## 1
Amino acid sequence: MSKKLFGTDGVRGVANSKLTPEIALAIGQAAGIYLSRSGEPQLAVLGRDTRASCDMLAAAVSAGLCSAGVSVYDLGVAPTPAVSFISRTGEFGLGVIVSASHNPAPDNGIKFVGHGGAKLPDETELAIEELIDSKFDRPIGGSVGRIQHGRDGIERYLAMLESIVPERLDGWRVAIDAAHGAAWELGPTILRRLGAKVCATGTHPDGVNINAVGGATKPDTICKVTVDSGSQVGVAFDGDADRAVFSDGQGRLINGDRTMGIWAEHTKGAGRLDPSLIVGTVMSNGGFVEYLAQQNITVERAPVGDKYVAERIRSTGALIGGEQSGHIIFPHHGPTGDGLVTMLELFRVLKLTGKTAAEFYESYEPWPQLLVNVAVDATAGWQETLRDVLEEGRERLGSRGRLVVRPSGTQPVIRVMVEADEYAARDQVADRIVSAMEQRMGGHVEGRVDLTYALGD
């Protein structure tokens, strides 16, 4: 059976339209029934980002959990990774996050993490869906779940973050863009605790400005703020703070590839990168892969999506894995991406080496990489329809590039990523494939992004 509500990252939709409080109530109740039968603690910890709709949906999902006998500890606004940390370090059977991450403010979502802090596997999400509207013995009286509001656990999370950089950051000037999201308070707080002077933007959420200007998905803002403030480095988070991207002091973007490269090179040099590999994705840049190969570091490619990166980390024993978007997992800190952890791990490398982010930026030159999103009438049968032109493209690129074509999981869109060691070959292959899609599939180009010095999905 296939899931009807849960997507690749929880349940998402426009709040109060597609994702209604009735749906949130039903999901919460089903999750509560599942938890009550699991043997795990009958207590859930809940956090949210800063969207206006979060209070409504958090109240609904909490009511559903309570109706099944599960009590809720509501943290209020908290980063997704903080909920994961508190879930796995406290007596909680479930973590609940109300957030749509990097999506615009009208959207929202509900996602769960288990007792160990990891996102629920597909089979568990399917089991929860199957319990919606099911009959169960409703608790009454003192057995009904209760809701408590508090911030216990947040201080433990901050203490964990502070421990990542025992050398501290005294004398540093750091720019930060919190995207008016879940890290608006904790991001500047942890940097100031470590002694840094902070120039902050995106720290005044009003319920509708989350991700609107700046943040990890619009890194031009942090690049400009870093230069204008005279900071030596800048960091930008997305709405729920599970990803981070950076700017060097010259206003150049340091995406997830570069961040992992800096960390892996240093850790390898210190004799601590065992095994000598990192987990990337099919979107990881060829220049990045070639550079790491020169350091005797292998890149294992996973499909796009943090769930797949996490699975490959577990199977390989890698110490780091992530995506160009800045969603990076350090498994020794937890099973999910954490933008604040990523920030501090990078800053510690800079501190230990005495090098600036700008110096590390010069380590390698990325290969020209292009992403074209093509809207089509339908994606069914796309592989057979495009077989000849895709084979032609791969033959044209040979060992000098890569071609990744994949349909969107939620829209009638096919994403075409072409990478080559020079621009002309890249563009020729991309144009040939897109032209075939327009002629054979009724397609039209929705977006064309040069990823060479930018962000992937």
## 2
Amino acid sequence: MADKNFDYLGETFQLQLLNQMIVDKDFSHSIIEVIEPNYFENKYFRLFVQMVKEYYSKFEHSPSFETIQQKAKSEISQELLLKITLDTISDIQNVTEEGTQFVQEKALKFCKQQELQKVMDKAKKIIDHGEFENYDTLEEMVREALQVGNVDRGTGDVFQDLDEVLADDYRHPIPMGIPGIDNLLKGGLAKGEIGVILAPTGVGKSTLTTKIANHAFNLGFNVLQIFFEDNYKIIQRKHFTCWTGIAPDELSNHKETVLAKVAEIKETMPNKLVMKKLPSDTLTMNQIKNQIRKMIADGTKIDMVILDYIDCVTPEKMMEDEWKSEGSVMRAFESMCHELDIAGWTATQGNRSSISSDVVTTDQMGGSIKKAQVGHVIITVAKSLQQKELNLATIAITKSRIGKDGVVFENCKFNNEMLEIDTESTTTFLGLEEQKEERNRNRIKEIMEKRKQQTV
């Protein structure tokens, strides 16, 4: 009957549901105890569920698709049955990722409803027999049924994992590759934390995000670099420049040297640096999360994700207040990084006033200020025309939940072409204002001296 299994929701829904039992570990954990093979008419879907539940019961986590395939090969001896089973697993693995949040919510509600129905049937039998003294038992049965499938991910005893909490490297940060900033961030950004790069257009956000991605990869981390507006080959060339020290426009003239260096890195580095160019203003954070989950399920545990940039991501639901929608995207990014245990860097545009600023401040963020409220770290970049000409920039840490903020790196090296960023000197915002006043006084003195000389 339609209300007794998932058939009434269609084959694609069922394939997506089975896919999410492997791809999304948290969802698998929440649904594994309430989903049953008999909720599917297709016998190969039932077999898949049974194998996943058996594996989970033994190892307390969901298997990968490769593990399920090996399990099928070891347990199914009939050749035709094995072929159909493996084909079914392949269909489950490659099903579309569109609408998976709806699938998860619908499936979990269905399964919980079935559990509640079982309890209500038992309760009816107790009531029909007049066993009113079992009221407390009935109440507990219903309460437990309502809690089935709920996973508490945010609660912990203050006394648990003391050795890990008190370890020197309890955060396990991933450095940016800019020593002055890394020192102030106590080593960099840790998994579950998000950093925001705020700068006006044309300053070098992609340069900075690419440098961060390249450095993390060089340290042995798996990095996913997502971008929306840049050309794929341009980003690829930026990485080659980081490795070879050869300017992007000169790479073709040193092809053999570049190929040799890239081949060496590919051979010696076991980790991955994955680049994804995605369409702008059409993808939601949930769709991006599903792509990362698929990578994890396929065997690549992502340590850091670079999102260039957050303004190109579409909210899950458009609100009347556009700023609330923008804030919801940033919160979804933070939630994803926390859930998947990933360090996350993203960039966002500054408003018009940021273009001419000596130092970009948080209130010059384009769009919703809620984007600033979510980030653990906010780093801003400002460039005057003279600084651009001299390959310089003023970088500031305007917010940090990790270490010291309110620090300005004035006129530090920022070479967009060579991806060279170096912070040699620092000053506080107060110190920067004092320096401005000193420079203004010096200018006034120079003007007065010139006027004296002209009158003599």
